[in-house]
């Protein structure tokens, strides 16, 4: 692909991304949104965070992997327990990475 | 209750973002190397990180450049992959509504998955008068790390160690941030629905599974909220 075309992709892709990020913050007035929409906002963090995390733990190469061979699932369970008890980001990451590395050494 | 001064909020934002860099920096290195091997010139490879600033979309776009896709198709793909940012924008909008326009423009520019995760945690904690400085600290730390790691990846090319599982630091951080969001049955329902649907829809391309699962999960949270509210109302009657 010619370099000029790549720069067009960069600029238009960047513009599209920025407009999406601006959408509700700067383009749509919050007061105009329906009440049900505003009530739903507080569920966005738990919904999205869980939707990002769970596939990373239980899918391997796009297929469901609910077995002891799936080290990321086991390490994720360890990390979830640590997150539950300590509420510390550092300890959660440390425990999860350590568990993953130890499992790969077994 | 006294709010923290701006510089303290900013530095807290920088500090809280540091664990995420374990995952972000290797991701940036790999992006730089991948873009070069896909035939993107070095300056344009950096341009992806400077202008688009969205890891997953950049990976897919650079790969499509390498396979000779049409520019319009690549731009459309970037748009689809980044649709999830509209959810982040909606979630933060009420917290940023009082800010001057220049703040909204800047914080929107820095709104990534990682920045949103840290912001959602910050806005749960109260004393919010200067919390936008926290977002700025967190977003600028990410932005700078993304630029530097992309540059290093461009310079180092494919000579990168690939056996360290550092990419796992990102889901682990999101897991830690998910925890304080689980406060009542509706938020549990939203998280359960989001996770399960994202797994079921994991086969959809362009992160569409994540967007659809998240929106359905927000609806699930709302439905449980309504049902439990009605239940309480009945109990009071």
Salient structural properties:
heterodimer; A: 106 residues; mainly alpha; two-stranded antiparallel sheet; 5 helices; 2 strands; 75% helix; B: 237 residues; 11 helices
3D structure, described in words:
The complex is a heterodimer of chains A (106) and B (237). Chain A has five helices and two strands, in the order H-H-H-E-E-H-H. With 106 residues, chain A is mainly alpha-helical. Chain A folds into two domains: 1-33; 42-106, no CATH class. In chain A, strand 1 and strand 2 form a beta hairpin. In chain A, helix 4 runs antiparallel to helix 5 (89-105). Chain A is extended, with a radius of gyration of 20 Å. Chain B is mainly α and 237 residues long. Chain B folds into two domains: 6-164, no CATH class; 182-237. Chains A and B meet through helix 1, helix 2, helix 3, helix 4 and helix 5 of A and helix 1, helix 2, helix 3, helix 4 and helix 5 of B.
Oligomer: heterodimer
How big a fraction of the residues of chain A is strand?
under 5%
| Overall spatial form of chain B | globular
Unreliable segments of chain A (pLDDT under 50, ≥5 consecutive)? none
Largest sheet strand order of chain A:
1-2
Global shape of chain A? extended
Poorly predicted residue ranges of chain B: none
The helix/strand order of chain B is: HHHHHHHHHHH
Tally of DSSP β-strands of chain A: 2
Average pLDDT reading of chain B: 89
**Largest beta sheet of chain A, briefly?**
2 strands, antiparallel
Largest sheet of chain B: none
User: How confident overall, as mean pLDDT of chain A?
Assistant: 90
Question: Gist?
Answer:
By secondary structure, chain A is mainly alpha-helical. In chain A, 75% of the residues lie in helices and 4% in strands.
Question: In terms of topology, how is this protein built?
Answer:
The complex is a heterodimer of chains A (106) and B (237).
Chain A: H1 3-27, H2 35-40, H3 44-58, E1 59-60, E2 63-64, H4 71-86, H5 89-105
Antiparallel strand pairs in A: 1-2
Helix pairs in contact in A: 4-5
Chain B: H1 6-37, H2 42-52, H3 55-66, H4 71-81, H5 85-96, H6 101-109, H7 113-122, H8 131-156, H9 169-178, H10 185-200, H11 208-236
Helix pairs in contact in B: 1-3, 1-8, 2-3, 2-8, 3-4, 5-7, 7-8, 10-11
